[in-house]
Amino acid sequence: MPASELGKSGAKVRVVIIVASIGGVSGVLLLGYFIWRTKSKGKKPKTVENGNQEEDLELPSFDLFTIINATNNFSASNKLGQGGFGPVYRGKLEDGQEIAVKRLSISSGQGIDELKNEVILIAKLQHRNLVNLLGCCIQGEEKLLVYEYMPNKGLDSFIFDQNKAKLLQWDKRFQIICGIARGLLYLHQDSRLRIIHRDLKASNVLLDNEMNPKISDFGLARTFGGDQIEGNTNRVVGTYGYMAPEYVSNGQFSTKSDVFSFGMMVLEIVSGKRSTSFSQQKEDLTLSGHAWTLMQQGMAIELLDSCLRDSDHNLQEVLCCIHVGLLCVQQRAADRPSMSSVVVMLSSDDHVLPCPNRPGYFMETESPQRYSDSSLTSLVTISGTEAP
Prior knowledge:
It is a single chain. The chain has helices spanning 3-39, 64-70, 111-122, 156-159, 170-190, 245-250, 255-271, 287-296, 315-328, 339-347; strands at 44-50, 53-61, 79-82, 87-92, 98-103, 133-139, 142-148, 194-196, 205-207, 213-215, 222-224, 230-232, 252-254. It is built from ten helices and 13 strands. Strand 3 (79-82) and strand 4 (87-92) form a beta hairpin. The radius of gyration is 27 Å and the shape is globular. It has two domains: 44-148, Phosphorylase Kinase, domain 1, CATH 3.30.200; 156-366, Orthogonal Bundle (Transferase(Phosphotransferase), domain 1). The chain is α+β, with helices and mostly antiparallel strands. Helices cover 35% and strands 16% of the residues. This is non-specific serine/threonine protein kinase. One of its GO terms (cellular component) is plasma membrane. It catalyses: L-threonyl-[protein] + ATP = O-phospho-L-threonyl-[protein] + ADP + H(+); L-seryl-[protein] + ATP = O-phospho-L-seryl-[protein] + ADP + H(+). GO terms for molecular function: ATP binding; protein serine/threonine kinase activity. Its EC number is 2.7.11.1.
């Protein structure tokens, strides 16, 4: 073969090799891109509109198909609860992680703003005593929030159940009280925002597999900026029995209205009784009124849950919690301690506590009237709902 033909043939071979190499590299890169897209599917940062602004939350966005698979197409067997937002479902991702999915009902016009509010707020919060928001899914009519799953559900499912209450011995109850206090202190003082929860109650405190408490449901929460210490609203929403007097009567809310709700929860945790349905038959006292009366008589320990009285408990801790709870449910907001003071009171053995005055809602007749569903809303939580 002539040398010129050999040269042409060699050039053709080199061209073929180069083209094949480029094609191979491109194929590998393309395959790598699709693998990356698959792994990151449903994990893009989500931009959520807040009023006239949009906030880049750097919050993972789950694909709707992923959520449908995880919840078995939102099956009834996976349903955890139902409320104002809509249903909440248990699910499991392909990697085995369990999740709780809050699904905004398509027919619910009320919950859209609250859902956006919850996403914007909780995406900025990180604390061991706050529930962890994993991401969201907003596709078409579907609006979903994805949380870490709390296997022990809500605090209310333990303290108000005669059988399960025995599983919460005093040391664990005290740990839960202190954990809630630290979480609330973070919201009020230690986070980047000053946040008023406005719907703190036993069913909105979830328990992980080690019974550590985590505050949940920030749909009604409000933020304060600068030197703002209180706010007002014409739309009073919350849960009967936990709302502070000034909030019910005037729509006024502040960190001290959260303190009131915390105090009611403390008395519930100690006693195992619901503040919303407690009534002392002889005197028609509320739970807080009953606790204050026992303290005045030097019999505060009688408030302790009957299932704990024969078991080991730290008497000083029990009496301290009752005392702190009563300080938190004072009629006047100014008479209630801050959460920073509460944390100090609960952690100090030699702290001298001020004497609590007669609490707000002392008598059942002084309690606010039970509102209709249109004016008093109890929103859904991951653990389910609580009737007012």
